[in-house]
Amino acid sequence: MEGGGGSAGKPSLQLVYQAVQALYHDPDPSGKERASCWLGELQRSVHAWEISDQLLQIRQDVESCYFAAQTMKMKIQTSFYELPTDSHASLRDSLLSHIQNLKDLSPVIVTQLALAIADLALQMASWKGCVQTLVEKYSNDVTSLPFLLEILTVLPEEVNSRSLRIGANRRTEIIEDLAYYSSTVISLLMTCVEKAGNDEKMLMKIFRCLGSWFNLGVLDSNFMANSKLLSLLFEVLVVEISFNFWYRLGEHLYKTDDAVIHSIFKAYIQRLLNALARHLGCSGHGVAGEIAVHLPHALIVTKEPGREGVPEETDDFGEFRMRVSDLVKDLIFLVGSVECFAQPRAVDQDRACFTQPYASQPRTQHRRARGTKENNPTLVEVLEGVVRLPESVHTAVRYTSIELVGEMSEVVDRNPQFLDPVLGYLMKGLCEKSLASVAAKAIHNICSVCRDHMAQHFNGLLEIARSLDSFMLSPEAAVGLLKGTALVLARLPLEKIAECLSELCAVQVMALKKLLSQEPSNGLSSDPTVPLDRLAVIFRHTNPIVENGQTHPCQKVIQEIWPVLSETLNKHRADNRIVERCCRCLRFAVRCVGKGSAALLQPLVTQMVNVYQAHQHSCFLYLGSILVDEYGMEEGCRQGLLDMLQALCLPTFQLLEQQNGLQNHPDTVDDLFRLATRFIQRSPITLLRSQVIIPILQWAIASTTLDHRDANCSVMKFLRDLVHTGVANDHEEDFELRKELIGQVMNQLGQQLVSQLLHTCCFCLPPYTLPDVAEVLWEIMQIDRPTFCRWLENSLKGLPKETTGGAIQVTHKQLTDFHKEVTSAEECKQVCWALRDFTRLFR
């Protein structure tokens, strides 16, 4: 297949059909991949509008129609600007015709077209009263009601969609319009309920639609509380309807935070809990207890005769139990936890069975244990009773009890006389497959909270660590046990730590050596991630208190282990996953001993740079930032660290220069600017005087558009700290030099930076990033406010004043008000508030 559009010209419909068929039916994965890439290119081209319309008219098969409907929706969301204004009405009429003609072909096609129509209505300023138009056109035709409801469901959902950037002015206009026609929608839904009878699919659509309008906040709560729709909801209670509707209602009521409204709806929530408790309790699947927020494993067993072992979250009713639990958590603020818990208890009164004394009490106390800090005698009694449970009780009861013991670690810490029996009880669980992981987690909790008391038991923990693989533990549980052991190790006398750390690491080091000695073709796994992860957690949590002048007790052990880590890194240099594990292990080793790792600095940096030239694993950049953080203030290390930075930057820039380089490598962006930020924090003049500062800043400006939480946060942090260097610590002797160097950088790139930040806020980034951007703008303003005023004014002139749909994007007054609010701000938070209000005009 040749190009899907753009400079290649419009492809034939036959070629498009072939690509769609290949995407869905080609048995060769590479053929599917080629088809997917070709169709993606077509979707991005201007020809996609016409081709999609033709495919929907011809209606050859489900696959081609779905592709066309999806493409139409995507184009309206992301490329609406490609259409001239006079074509909007014909596009609307065409879409309405398509959804009516295709309403029986496939529900997913109807949904895509409904989204396309909704997104068009939101952007098309000339389509006035779209709700009224649609209701009048289709409400009298029973066969059209399903797609009408679909449009009316997605319309309010799309108002705040991040896929559309309609702006605050247009959004306000739309919400007012939808509120005006909300009574029309409610009347339609009432009519639909009457016509639906016992049609569950139709009832689902109706209450999904109601929930959507609730969520937008355009329905009058007092009116709805007295509406027949809520009463009807109970009469036709269907679980899926209830979940979707009650989730939305709960969210709306929580946002409303009105005691009067809450009191009106409280009775409905109580009825819901009663209905679920009766319905689900009678079903014999033991889910009534879930209404108590967390259903204990033991209680499930008592409800399900013949059930053996611990119930799995993936069993037939696992997902269902979780959904009920989530629903109750969303609604519990209305009725209170005590009353919520009372609902299933009332239903369960006459269903007691042999394990109930053990099933109900621990979990009730479990919640209390989390909420109390005092040495409650009841908790002590519960702890004492639990550890004396006979091994003959049901496995699920033991599972719940072991969980409880782990959660009561603070009680154990205050009552150390229980430590020996608690450890003995947990060790029994550790030796049983079904209880091993939960017991390991409990031991980890005990170690974390009772470190000082556990020091006397370190040899026992060491024996467990040596035999770790003999227990049937999940990987997480095994790592947790080692974490607990390391935490206790750190509390031993300094003179004992080195020997004990060496013994704790010995099993993992031997495993690495064995893997290194294996021949690559012997068929055995050579994956070293397990011992690397275990070493990492040991180094991370072995943090003894070392006074100034004392040699770190872990230093010698880490130096002895370094050759094995270096060889492992070299052997697996091309495998990103394993290299990341190696770097993580080295990171925690360096952090463990701090400047005590100086002997490793030169060989480690040399190996990092050499491997990075061939394999751009971003974890090397992150590890580099750790080294700069530890050694950047040491005069003798600064030039070597700068050489490392420059050596790492060259292949990094080449990687990011590739097509879609920033989007394809957000981890590299994240770690690059973590490294650059550490340099600014530890040795700013070293970086500001270097030749690499301008390219780094240029890449930072380009990277501000990247919608990736971690990467964007790192970029903004670098920019903020960079500019702040020009005003910070003005009492220090290097201040004037820092100020001069930052002034030179800003004179060269300041206008570009401000323009890019403003464009990024308005068109690229989500709202949660605005405080970070505001901090950067605030710091620039502190350097030279008059110059910043000029830069901001120039940037504002470049913004569009109207949307492609013909709506006003931003008025002249809104531009001047924003400029005044920012440039007259006396605190950073004022810049953030102004930015938040202004960017809503473009979202």
Give me the secondary-structure topology.
Elements: H1 13-25, H2 29-44, H3 48-58, H4 62-78, H5 88-101, H6 107-123, H7 130-138, H8 145-158, H9 168-180, H10 182-196, H11 200-216, H12 221-225, H13 228-235, H14 239-256, H15 259-282, H16 297-303, H17 318-335, H18 337-348, H19 356-371, H20 377-387, H21 395-407, H22 409-414, H23 419-430, H24 433-449, H25 451-454, H26 458-466, H27 475-489, H28 494-517, H29 529-541, H30 555-571, H31 576-593, H32 598-614, H33 619-631, H34 635-656, H35 661-664, H36 666-682, H37 684-688, H38 693-703, H39 709-724, H40 735-763, H41 770-783, H42 785-797, H43 812-823, H44 828-839
- Count the strands? 0
C-alpha Rg, in Å? Answer: 32 Å
Strand content: under 5%
- Overall outline: globular
The amount of helix comes to over 70%
Task: Extract low-pLDDT stretches.
Answer: 280-305, 340-374
How many helical stretches? 44
Largest beta sheet, briefly? none
- What is the CA-CA span between the terminal residues? 37 Å
What number is the mean pLDDT? 85
Structural class: mainly alpha
Task: Provide a short characterization of the protein structure.
With 843 residues, the chain is an all-alpha fold.
Report on this model:
The chain is mainly alpha-helical. 72% of the residues lie in helices and 0% in strands. The chain has 44 helices and no strands. Helix 16 runs antiparallel to helix 21.
List keywords for this structure.
single chain; mainly alpha; globular
